[in-house]
Amino acid sequence: MQKLRTSISILSAIILLNSCNSALQSFKKGQKKFDNGEYELAIKELQKASGAGYELGKTNYLIAESYRLSNRPLQAGDYYEKALASNSRENDLRYHLAMTQKMQGKYKEAGENLEKYLSGIPSKELKNKAQTEIDLLPEVEELANKKTYIEVKPLSLNSTGTEFAPIPQGNELIFTASRKDIIYKNNGLPYLGLYRATLNSPTEIGTPSLFSSTIFKDNANEGTPTFSKDGKMMVFARGNTGKRSDASPDVDLYISKNIDGVWSEPEMVSVSDSLAWDGCPSFSADNKTLYFGSNRAGGKGGIDIYRANIDNAGRFGRAINMGSDINTAGDEMFPYVSKDGKLYFSSDGHAGIGGLDLYSATRINGEIKVEHLGIPLNSRFDDFGLVAIDSTKGYFASNRDSGKGDDDIYYYENTQPGKKYENVPPVVAKKDEPKKKTIRYFLAGNVTDINNQALDSVKVAILDNSTNQAIDEVYTKGEGTFGKVKMEEEKTYTIVTEKKGYFTKREPFTMVGKSISLDKLTKAETDTIFYASIKMEKPEVGKDITKTFNIAPIYYNLDKSEIRNDAANELDRIVQVLVDNPTIKLELGSHTDSRATAEYNQKLSQRRADSAVAYIISKGISSARIVAKGYGESQLVNKCADGVPCSEEEHQANRRTEFKVLEVK
Questions:
Q1: How far is CA 258 from the centre of its chain?
Q2: What are phi and psi of 579, to 5 degrees?
Q3: How far is CA 421 from CA 396, 416, 602, in A?
Q4: Do 125 and 201 have their domain in common?
Q5: Number of helices and strands in the chain (H, E)
Q6: Which of 438, 500, 440, 401 is nearest to 154 (CA)?
Q7: How many C-beta atoms surround the C-beta of residue 551 within 10 A?
Q8: In this structure, are 133 and 169 located in the same domain?
Q9: What does the H/E/C string look like for 158-227?
Q10: In Å, how far are 158, 483, 527 from 492, measured between CA atoms?
Q11: Are residues 48 and 176 in the same domain?
Q12: Residue ranges of the OmpA-like domain (predicted)?
């Protein structure tokens, strides 16, 4: 009997040990899949470990994160709760739990978890977002009761998969859907592709078919197209395939053109940042601007909305952040500009009732007003990708719980045009409350040639020096004027002017020390405009550009050719001139004073020129674009020839480097 009990105990221990090993292996496999971004596969392995009771706090948190990162927040919420109940110590758990509770309409619970999160050690990335969410919660509860006269109907093409980004084109609807044969390991759904279907009615759609065989990668996500006004040009987003041959490790914008009824092979758009996520593009109604979402460096938060001007030749300008009136610490994406100039977009950073909510932005008297579009366009879930047919109807997408699948497409229409809200609470005026004084700063200016003649059609970009990103890009008018561009206090900027046939030029502009005390204001709102005057010159062979670009003299220590720190700063400016002006070739001419023999000075000046050119080439400039030339003491700028007594400062003036234009292409 004793032997039997011993055998049973050993067998139980073996079974328990095997069970622990199995759970551990499942956890390790799940963690590896999670690290690789294969969230659906991670969930399957981690659920095995969770079912076996293996480190429930950590395992359930990873399951929750897998659901969140694959855009399934409600499923994530259940596992955040389980992780919290298992005493998980993950730092950001309460923040993510609060966001899922907000989507469930549990605003009180969400607020409590956000407060607890901030009372701990919040991450730098989420601290401000958490505080913003707390500040906005009272407004969120009001928005949840803001019902409009809009009716929403699902489209017949919706499936158990994903359908979104609807674009009406003639009698067809172009849309993005998860209908490819290969499964995307991130969310367990097929890869996204572009499809088309006939519009039999606003909600009844014909049988979908592939949009184009030339715009189809079976192992990459493709979608969110936008079309030019004539329908002959399309920009869309394409993700990477995970192969080394990919042009980018992330999502990028691609362009294709319809030539004789056939779409061309897509090419990456020049404005796309290969190191960032770029997606959901949208042309303006006049085709002169491309709007898109990006998480590139220098933004306001997660994904921001940017715009890029398009010139008459179809070339894209710099990407310009739409600013803090639109972009927040959260995500802003899916921009769409209607024919009347109203910007529609989705955001989870403005006051909203769920995940991504739909908003409109309009500019009134220089101020941008952002408005929540209310219920039922918005729900507790993600609502995004709105396109307007006219001022009363259009399409959008949502993953609301009444749908068929992951994301579905809906048609909306205002049943009472001219009316907006069914139940708007009355506005109660507050008495004896002093108006808050505000001041706005703007930059305007003019661009002329060296003869003070106004230059029109000059592209003027304003760069924020802290991010090196353009905050605005405008063109001068017939009288050479530009502006107004909104400025921020205590910031420094660079004004970049560009016009064909002229040097591209950079001018500094600072707001440091220019703020006006609010106590001195007599009005509630005050606008202050600063002006900049810029002269542009034409590149000519033989022209010395040191004065044109305010390049300080490049000096060398006596009898030396090494680049000094002060000289390096000026050479960096020459590098920028060459980058900004790719059509010019320069001569770097080095000069000495008259001390020592002419032969020695000739060799010394050549060494100095070679040294400076080597520095410029080390910064990425082609050696074919700059030539080193030593002049020795043959071109003194003053009286200090051999035998003439001169001060050290006078000799220093002769030890100089000049930059002349050798060639203009």
A1: 28
A2: -65, -45
A3: 19, 10, 83
A4: no
A5: 10, 31
A6: 401
A7: 18
A8: no
A9: CCCCCEEEEEEECCEEEEEEEEEEEEECCCCEEEEEEEEEEECCCCCECCCEECCCCCCCCCCCEEEEEE
A10: 50, 17, 19
A11: no
A12: 543-665
Which tens digits make up the pLDDT trace of 265-305? 999 999 999 889 999 999 998 898 999 999 998 888 889 99
The residue type of 344 is Y
* DSSP state letter for 642: T
What is the pTM for the complete model shown? Answer: 0.69
91-105 burial by CB neighbour count: b if 16+ within 10 A, else e? ebbbbbbbbbbbbee
Residue 216 lies in a domain: yes
User: What is the rounded CA–CA span in Å between residue 294 and residue 279?
Assistant: 7
Task: Tell me: do 266 and 401 sit in the same domain.
Answer: yes
Distances in whole angstroms, Cα of residue 155 to Cα of each of 72, 208, 398, 400, 459? 22, 12, 12, 14, 44
| C-alpha R_g of the chain | 32
| DSSP code of residue 574 | H
Distances (CA, A) of 217 to 70, 189, 255: 21, 16, 15
Which residue do the tokens 């078919």 mark? 209
Q: Which residues of 220-248 are buried (b: 16+ CB within 10 A; e: fewer)?
A: bbbbbbbbeeeeebbbbbbbbeeeeeeeb
Domain that residue 331 falls in:
150-414
Residue in 101, 107, 105 with CA at minimum distance from that of residue 77: 101
Which tokens is 164 given?
């979104």
Which H helix or E strand runs over 347?
strand 343-347
Sign of dihedral through CA atoms 274, 276, 280, 285?
Answer: negative
How many Å apart are CA 656 and CA 387, to the nearest integer? Answer: 61
**Residue 1 lies inside a defined structural domain of this protein:** no
Q: CB within 8 A of 645, min separation 6: which ones?
A: none
Do 410 and 444 fall within a single domain? no
> Is residue 396 a contact partner of residue 385, using CB atoms and an 8 Å limit?
yes
User: Residue 366: its pLDDT value, please?
Assistant: 66
At which residue do the structure tokens 């009761």 appear? 145
User: Which neighbouring-strand residues pair with 369?
Assistant: 362
Q: Is residue 420 in a domain?
A: no
- The per-residue pLDDT for 1 is 47
Pair (111, 37) in one structural domain: yes
Q: Are 584 and 539 within 8 A, CB to CB?
A: yes
Distance CA 199, CA 209 (A): 13
| Burial (Cβ within 10 Å: 0-12, 13-18, ≥19) of residue 199 | middle
Same domain, 465 and 594: no
State the sign of the Cα–Cα–Cα–Cα dihedral 559, 564, 567, 573.
Answer: positive
Does 39 lie in the same domain as 134? yes
With CA atoms as reference, report the closest residue to 75 among 117, 47, 116.
47
CA distance to 61, 62, 73, 300, per residue, from 96 (Å): 10, 12, 9, 20
Q: Hey, is 385 helix, strand or coil?
A: strand
Asked whether residue 423 is domain-assigned, the answer is no
Q: Which residue has the tokens 């109660």?
A: 428
| Weakly modelled stretches of the chain, pLDDT under 50 | 1-4, 8, 11, 13-17, 425-433
Contact 34, 69 (CB under 8 A): no
Identify the three-state secondary structure at position 47.
helix
Q: How many domains does the chain have?
A: 4
Q: Which residues contact 631 (CB under 8 A, 6 or more apart)?
A: 589, 590, 591, 602, 605
| CB-based contacts of 24-27 (< 8 A; 24+ apart in sequence) | 24/49, 24/54, 26/52, 26/54, 27/54, 27/55, 27/59
Residue 428: predicted pLDDT: 38
Cβ pair 593, 665 in contact under 8 A: no
* Amino acid 534: pLDDT: 94
